[in-house]
Amino acid sequence: MSAAAQESVEIEKIQTTEEGLATQQYLTFLMNDEEYGVDILAVQEIRGWERATMVPNSPSHMKGVLNLRGTIVPIIDLRDRFQLPSVDYSDITVVVILKVDTDKGDRTMGIIVDAISDVYDVPIGKVRTTGVAENRNSHFIKGLVTVDKNMVILLELQKLLTIDD
Predict the structure, then answer these.
(1) Which of 114, 84, 83, 102 has the alpha carbon at shortest distance from 156?
(2) Would 145 be classed as within a structural domain?
(3) What is the pLDDT of residues 19-47, one digit of tens each?
(4) CATH number at residue 145
(5) Tens digit of pLDDT for each residue in 88-138?
(6) What mean pLDDT, rounded, does the chain reach?
(7) Residue 65: pLDDT over 60
(8) 25 CB-near residues (< 8 Å, 6+ apart)
(9) What domain range includes position 124?
(10) How many domains does the chain have?
(11) DSSP codes of every residue in the chain
(12) Residue 165 lies in a domain
């Protein structure tokens, strides 16, 4: 995608509040009592948990693939990927299907999360860096934002969706 086209897409994602602050919408979900957010425009669909077809010799966080209307979609357990304690999947466990334009073209992937939380309009100027030392998961974090006195971890989808590259 050209730089001009990328800038056009970025402008389309940004909205403004009544106070004139530029905002971006994030779908948030829960894992291990923490709230995480992903760009709402990358969300293709939200599905209830269903067993995926296993792929031999795949990493433990890779739970398999789903056939989504003719497209094979890899499914990863974000808890496992972030090395959080395991939990059994329940009625509120969901798979969020994400689609992002990467350097290697469009990439579609599903992430298994504990539960969907909310959709927030996040003022872009309020997103802060983590301020913590580099670790194996820090490059997946776009930033942190406080919404209604809760800290929300915003994920960097281009890096998250290319974790196995």
Answers:
(1) 102
(2) yes
(3) 556 889 999 999 998 999 999 999 999 99
(4) 2.40.50.180
(5) 998 899 999 999 887 778 889 999 999 999 999 888 888 887 665 555 556
(6) 81
(7) yes
(8) 15, 39, 40, 41, 119, 120, 121, 122
(9) 3-160
(10) 1
(11) --HHHHHHHHHHH-EE-TTS-EEEEEEEEEETTEEEEEEGGGEEEEEE--PPBP-TT--TTEEEEEEETTEEEEEEEHHHHTTPPP----TT-EEEEEEEEETTEEEEEEEEESEEEEEEEEEGGG-B---S---TTGGGEEEEEEETTEEEEEE-HHHHTTTT-
(12) no
The answer as to whether 26 is a domain residue is yes
Q: Are 25 and 120 in contact (CB under 8 A)?
A: yes
Q: Which residue has 């999947």 as its token pair?
A: 89
Token pair of 67 as six digits: 């056939």
- Binning pLDDT at 50, 70 and 90, where does residue 2 land? very low
Is 147 a domain residue?
yes
The answer to whether residue 9 scores a pLDDT higher than 50 is no
CA–CA distance, 68 with 74 (Å, rounded to integer)? 10
